[in-house]
Amino acid sequence: MAGCKTAISNVVLTIVVFLTLQFITPLFKHTPNAILRAIIISADTPCLDN
């Protein structure tokens, strides 16, 4: 998890992530797919190095 120690903090984290996705996702609507793929690849590269 995210280092949460209580159930309430997990609920708060879930709500924050949900609201963030609801309001941030529409901003990517007009972003070209190539740019989105580059963002995903650059974020995923450290995971592949291990």
Summary keywords:
50 residues; mainly alpha; 70% helix; flat
What does this structure look like?
With about 50 residues, the chain is mostly helical. The protein has one domain. It contains 2 helices and no strands. It has helices at about 5-25, 35-50. The longest helix has 18 residues, at about 5-25. It is flat. The two termini are about 20 Å apart. The mean pLDDT is about 85.
What would you say about this model in short?
The protein has two helices and no strands.
DSSP helix count?
A: 2
Q: On the 0-100 scale, what is the average pLDDT?
A: 85
**Low-pLDDT sequence parts:** none
Percent helix range: over 70%
The structural domain count equals: 1
Output the structural class: mainly alpha
- SSE series: HH
What oligomeric state do these chains adopt?
A: single chain
The strand count comes to: 0
Tell me, briefly, the overall form: flat
Q: Strand count, sense and closure of the main sheet?
A: none
Rg of Cα set: 15 Å
